[in-house]
């Protein structure tokens, strides 16, 4: 087979030359990969007028793969292939004009001419580059509508950066009506295609879209009736997350936690003003409980989730974390452990406001005291909220399956798409 192809090449058959070039380039027909030998055969086919081989020769010159890097010869062969209608060559020639690859000077009008031809040839990179020119007004009148159309077309062809830009357009309403569910869909697609920034964008936006997050609440007791109260209450203005861990030592801890839950419900019914001071409100509740409440005390994490932002207040040793793409942000890192709510002198710490991002994990000390921070972070990388909650509670159990202390847990995470 090889000898037959070599004879055809000697007779001037450019198709055989291209076939042998691809065999050497990809290690086919039992041949080892050899870019230099591949280049020799591509050059034979290119000199015979084969457009695809001309593109391959240009790319090897541009990258210095199998031959010494040479920008001028790369441009020469890109031009040859582009003139024959090879879409990838048209896209790369356009980029050469955009960056001023020698011997060219920077010329966006020429770049856009070739980007458009490549786009019409259904080359994703050509579509993306043309979209960028429209988005940023590079050599063309800025037109976000046309930019979005070309981003979307390239995204549908599997271009990861175009999928991210299409999602961004839907999120902000750039050239298209704002559509957050559609933005989430395209951020998810960009993530599938390997875009590095898509997960962060997806997990930030999911907090602002109705139905785009999932919530799991768990309350596991250790040999006795749990003293903890967990609640996630959604109203018209946002969502209130409450974890109140009743202190068992002095009695009536559960009743104090329940009284706080009632107060939270009343607060939502009355409405939550913008920039509401949750720390001041919780201190007021503390004084009310001390003067006329059940007489118990509780550790509290109270969070208000609204418009993609979290704020709130806390006191005690329960904790709240945001497990983000790149790190973990402990919302309650600066809280005071005592005095607790119900004492009348609770040392309440304000939380936030900060941007909601990633997964929110709120739990009582029965979890945090049993698991290391690194283990919690690993567990929190689970795909679904229910899996995340199961992993955390399992990690808090003793080898015999029992819990040392009550474990109350609230997990809110973006839904996988």
Describe the model:
With 417 residues, the chain is an alpha+beta fold. The protein has two domains: 2-206, Alpha Horseshoe (Serine Threonine Protein Phosphatase 5, Tetratricopeptide repeat); 213-414, 4-Layer Sandwich (Phosphatase 2c, domain 1), CATH 3.60.40. The chain is built from 17 helices and ten strands. The protein has helices at residues 2-10, 14-26, 35-47, 51-63, 71-83, 87-99, 108-120, 124-136, 144-156, 160-172, 180-192, 198-206, 253-270, 278-292, 365-368, 373-379, 385-396, and strands spanning 213-220, 228-234, 239-246, 298-306, 309-315, 319-323, 328-330, 349-355, 359-363, 407-414. The strands form two sheets. Strands 1-10-9-6-7 form a five-stranded antiparallel β-sheet. The protein has a five-stranded antiparallel β-sheet with strand order 2-3-4-5-8, with helices on one face. The longest helix has 18 residues, at 253-270. The chain is elongated and about 100 Å long.
Structure summary, number of beta strands: 10
Oligomer: single chain
Fourth-tier CATH superfamily name of the largest domain: Tetratricopeptide repeat domain
Low-pLDDT segments, ≥5 res: none
In N-to-C order, the SSE pattern is HHHHHHHHHHHHEEEHHEEEEEEHHHE
As a percent range, the share of strand residues is 15-25%
- Give the overall form: elongated
Number of domains: 2
Strand order of the largest sheet: 1-10-9-6-7
Q: Rg from C-alpha positions? A: 31 Å
End-to-end gap: 49 Å
**Arithmetic mean pLDDT:** 92
Helix content: 40-55%
Q: In this structure, how is the largest beta sheet organized?
A: 5 strands, antiparallel
Provide the CATH architecture of the largest domain: Alpha Horseshoe
